[in-house]
Every structure is written in structure tokens, then in C-alpha cells.
Design goal:
This protein has about 300 residues and is α/β, with parallel strands linked by helices. The chain is built from eleven helices and 15 strands. A three-stranded mixed beta sheet has the order 2-1-15. A three-stranded mixed beta sheet has the order 3-4-5, with no helix packed on it. Strand 6 and strand 7 (about 150-155) form a beta hairpin. The longest helix has 21 residues, at about 40-60. It is globular and about 45 Å long. InterPro entries: Amdntrnsf_FN0238 (IPR014541).
């Protein structure tokens, strides 16, 4: 059950020309503009990325790194939006909302998965971009791999018809709700609002606008055996919800240093009953409106047996 929710391997994309994406700024309230030159910003992001990879590997997590040298893909450091992997050998490829984010998809990543892991099928939804439909992977959906529930905030990044299609193909139940931040702005991605571990869930229940739906979401999380750790809107602004449980030498919760700092001691104590916090220092990367969870595309696939000739 541990590995079902907490992958032991991830794909990460190393950005050589990182910047805050102008095409997503209108609906991503988490984005900020760096107060320095593009060259300095890019160099800082690269250093933060390399430090994060080193920390993850030192903790026993397998990290597959792909370099992105394009200037046309400013958000490529967040690959969890364009593909996901699933137990049983299934891979999904997703349609993206912003035109420049559609360029992030790269089939060498899928080929690596096929080479090193057992992949039965790849279901590619990306052609639906022609109809202006988007479903941005595990940004738009926070997946409970144990309870088979896809928690999804209503947004232009999560088309309801596509969500139903994904849930039918991959055997999830959709749990859809509206959410707004403290300023009344729509939440653009579910994974900034919540993250699900094996034994606990991080979520800001207050940001779910409908009280009845809020109670239902809490109940479903508790029914699947999770301790609900209720975050504040201020903690969400510090990316405390944008975390991913991983399995290294022990069970870990990867999150940003900023997110770790805004968690209260009692919340940390609840998490640490199940997982050890693994803070990654990525302040420059966070100016793009995503944090650690967005950087990690978890691999929920079985490794292939290596044959020796």
C-alpha cells in the first residue's frame, strides 16, 4: 500500500531558461515576477533544481533528469501537468491549457518509462487541445491511488468531460468542487490546495466554497483512512499544500523549505507519525506559481527486470 501512494522514483525536467510564464499569469495567482535579470533568475533556478535533485537522491529516491534547453517552455520544470503514471503499467498524456505549455511534452520521457518500467499502454488525450480542452494531469487532479478518488477543483485547467473520460479509463471516482483563495480568486490547480499521503491529507478546507461539499471532501478523506491536516489560506500561499509523499530509504514528504516553515509544530508532528519531512530550497522556481509537487512526476510503475547477456 505504501508504494501505491508514495512512488520511489520521479521524473524531473532541468530548466536552462527558467522564467515566470506570461501565458499563465492571468489565472495563476501564485505567480510573482522576479526582481532581477532573466539571466540571474535562470541561473538561480538551475542551482535550486540541482540542489533538489541531490537532496532527493541522497534520501534514496530514484530521480530521472531530462534537460530542457528551449527558451519556448518556461514552465517545463513542472512536468506533472503533462503526464502521469499508474499501477498496472498505465500512462496518461494530457492536453494543456496554455499554448506554450503544450510544447513541454516530450516522447523521450515516455520512451524511458517504456525501457526501464513495465508499461502496458499510453493513453494520449493531448489531441483534444484542438478543441480547446485541457486536463492538466496531477496539477488539475490530486489522485488518491488507494481510495481511487480524483479530487479536482473546477477550473479552465480541468475540463469536466475529459475528467470523466480519464476516471473511466483509469478507474477513479471524480470528486469535483469549487475553491477560491483568500482574495476570492479561483484556485487554478488542485495540487496547490491539497496533497494526499498514505496516512494523512494536507488540505485547506476553508477554500472549498460550498460548505456541504467541504464536509463531503473531508468525510471521503477520513473514510480512506487519512488524518486530515487542515491548512490555512496563508499556509496554502506558502505552498504547504503542494507536497508529494515519496518512498526513499524511508517514507518522505517532499515539500519546499518555504512550505516547511509555514507548517505549525502540531501539523508537522502529525505528518511525522507517517513520513519524514524533506524540505527543498526552491524560492526562485516558486515565483513561477508552482512548488515541489509540481516539479515531481511520480512513477507508479513496476521496474523491468534487467537481463544480463
Amino acid at each position: 500500500m505504501t508504494l501505491l501512494q508514495a512512488p520511489s522514483a520521479v521524473v524531473m525536467i532541468r530548466p536552462h531558461h527558467f522564467c515566470s510564464n506570461p501565458e499563465t499569469r492571468d489565472d495563476n495567482a501564485f505567480q510573482t515576477l522576479a526582481d532581477q535579470t532573466a539571466e540571474v533568475t535562470s541561473a538561480q533556478a538551475l542551482a535550486e533544481f540541482d540542489g533538489a535533485v541531490e537532496t532527493l537522491r541522497a534520501a534514496g529516491v530514484t530521480v530521472h533528469v531530462f534537460d530542457d534547453t528551449s527558451r519556448d517552455t518556461p514552465d517545463s520544470v513542472f512536468p506533472n501537468n503533462w503526464f502521469s503514471t499508474h499501477a498496472g503499467g498505465h500512462v496518461a498524456v494530457y492536453p494543456m491549457y496554455a499554448p506554450n505549455r503544450r510544447k513541454e511534452r516530450r516522447w523521450d520521457v515516455i520512451e524511458l518509462l517504456k525501457r526501464d518500467y513495465r508499461v502496458q499502454d499510453v493513453i494520449d488525450y493531448s489531441g483534444l487541445e484542438q478543441d480547446n480542452l485541457a486536463l492538466e494531469g496531477t496539477g488539475a487532479m490530486v489522485l488518491d491511488h488507494i481510495g481511487r478518488i480524483a479530487y479536482t477543483v473546477k477550473s479552465n485547467r480541468a475540463d469536466p468531460v475529459l475528467l470523466e473520460r480519464f476516471c473511466t479509463h483509469f478507474n477513479f471516482e471524480p470528486m469535483v468542487f469549487e475553491a477560491k483563495d483568500a482574495a476570492g480568486r479561483d484556485v487554478y490547480h488542485t495540487n496547490v490546495l491539497m496533497g494526499i499521503g498514505t496516512d494523512y491529507a494536507l488540505i485547506c478546507l476553508e477554500m472549498i466554497t460550498d460548505p456541504a461539499r467541504r464536509a463531503e471532501v473531508k468525510q471521503r478523506l477520513e473514510e480512506t483512512g487519512r488524518t486530515v491536516i487542515d491548512l490555512t489560506p496563508e499556509q496554502i500561499a506558502g505552498f504547504a499544500g503542494n507536497a508529494l509523499e515519496l518512498k526513499g530509504r524511508k517514507r518522505l514528504l517532499a515539500l519546499s523549505a518555504r512550505a516547511a516553515e509555514v507548517l505549525r509544530p502540531d501539523q508537522i508532528a502529525l505528518i511525522e507519525q507517517s513520513a519524514t519531512l524533506l524540505p527543498l530550497n526552491i524560492p526562485t522556481i516558486e515565483t513561477a506559481g508552482g512548488s515541489v509537487r509540481c516539479m515531481l512526476a511520480g512513477i507508479h510503475l513496476s521496474t523491468r527486470e534487467r537481463t544480463v547477456s
